[in-house]
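Handout, section 4.2: multi-component inputs.
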Amino acid sequence: MKAVLKTTILMLILLLASSLAVFAAIRLSGGDVTAARLPASASAADRDLFRRQMGLDQPILRQYITYLGDLLRGDLGNSLTNNASISDLAVQKIKNSAILGGMSLLLVFGVGVPLGMVASLKRNSFLDTGITSFSVAGMAVPNFWLALISIHIFATTLGWLPSAGQGGFKYLILPSVVLAAEGIALTVRMTRSAMIENLNQDFVRTLRAAGLSERRIYFKHVLRNSLLPIISLAGLRIGQIVGYALVVETIFGWPGVGQVLVNGVLRRDYPVVQFFSLLLVFVVTMGNLAASIGYTLANPRLRK
Amino acid sequence: MTVENTPLLDVRNLSIGLRDRDGVGYDIVRDVSISLYPNETLAVVGESGCGKSLTALSMLSLIASPPLFITGGSIMFGGHDLTKLSASEMRAIRGAEIAMVFQDPMSALDPMFTVGTLLTSAVKAHQKVKSAVAKEISLAALADAGIEDPKRRFDEYPFQLSGGISQRVMIALALVNNPKVLIADEPTTALDVTVQAQILERLKELKSERGMALMLITHNLGVVASVADRMVVMYTGEVVESGPVAEVLAAPHHPYTNGLLGAVPRLNSGTTELTSIPGRVPQPYELPVGCTFADRCDRSIDICTVKHPVLELGTRTDVRCHNPVD
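Output:
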């Protein structure tokens, strides 16, 4: 309980610090906020008027305090580029991203763990070498490249899957696989090495001496021990998916948080960037919190 | 002590070798014969690396294969040669007929499961019983192993147990299916001296109560003297001397056994200095042609470096030596 309280306070401090960082960074990155909203022919006076209306002529510190106050009241503001309410925008975008991210997370563990187990079970076999090689490739290949290649193969050439956009399940396959690729690769390797390490522990010999079947030893005892490091690093996997979503959503035209954020940055749409960046920070911290709670629950030493 | 004449477990001329992929290697255990009779305690003594643990593990087919292989001999038990059984036949014997207690109980119990889960899994591996029955059997085994409140320990995790209690849990785990043979591989090495004595005493009692054969692997001659009926001394993967404990300890015939005894401190002897055996144990890949103990032996004669001695079977004790101590 005390640990949860401590983590929560740390999380709030982290969120505050990142809100300041994002606020400053987007303003320091140059560019003109009026370019996206006003026509190119707008006069300098019109542009000044727009800045005044949006409060952008105020000193930066005051702008930040106003922003924080609005945020605490739950007022997320409107987009500078099309005046749309960010809260309305957020609901749909978050839902889309959650679908994509959730699917990827499912793939990371649902595919990564079983493949790692197979590799450890068939250690040094042809199958193991195949799985291990694939996972090395998965870690080495950058996801934007993988995205382009998979669009080329499965969408353009074979025509099996749509290349971009959102619709049925078909539209989810390519982006979620590309987004999950590195996580799967890392999880495979981690599962494999954890399983092999635990198979050599003394307790395995004890269980064998007691006459337990190899299957039971492997799937119950060794697996259970091997899940600990996997759970403890699940927070990192979540962070990775959140980060990569920016790239993958943009390439696949997936209308999620990542895409909105990238467009927001390109147009210097301050309120949009501020809110969605903070949201990502929040999701990553929550992911880490969930992972450490999961680790505590899975480890009897910490649970008791 | 009643010792029957048919051995329960009979290891005959067992050799265990380390082999690489091309079958090249050397033997670590050579020509070992050990018989275990019902209701007796046999101590296997020797330095680290002499092959005593490996011999014990081979009785349960638990040697890491590859790279280790049984390269010769047989292990007869209940009319079967254990070295020839399939994996599933062997699994049926492990824990149910022959059980083993390991050293370092803290790492030998799976940390993720309660004592109760570990014990009931072992019960269910051999007996088709309901969970409630498996629990009863497990609680009884814990009590048998000398644990005072089995019900509490049943729900505890290994990390909540002391070393002594862990070792008792290991013993309960080994006993839970009523094996005929219990192998204890240095069961007290990792424990406090006072706890050691209690555990050994309990093992001895259990052996008598159940008429089991107990094979105790140790390098502590004090333990041998207080617990065992017969003893086998191993050196460089071979049996160098074996016989009833009282006789071997009173009058060791092999210079190595003699050396081991000389290295044990005694309170009531006149000598103040402990003797040590000079030199070092040769590695399995550099064994000499003759006796493997020859270059450390003060009784070495010409033949010792030329001809490997055989185990001479005596009326009471067997000795592998060209020039034994009388």
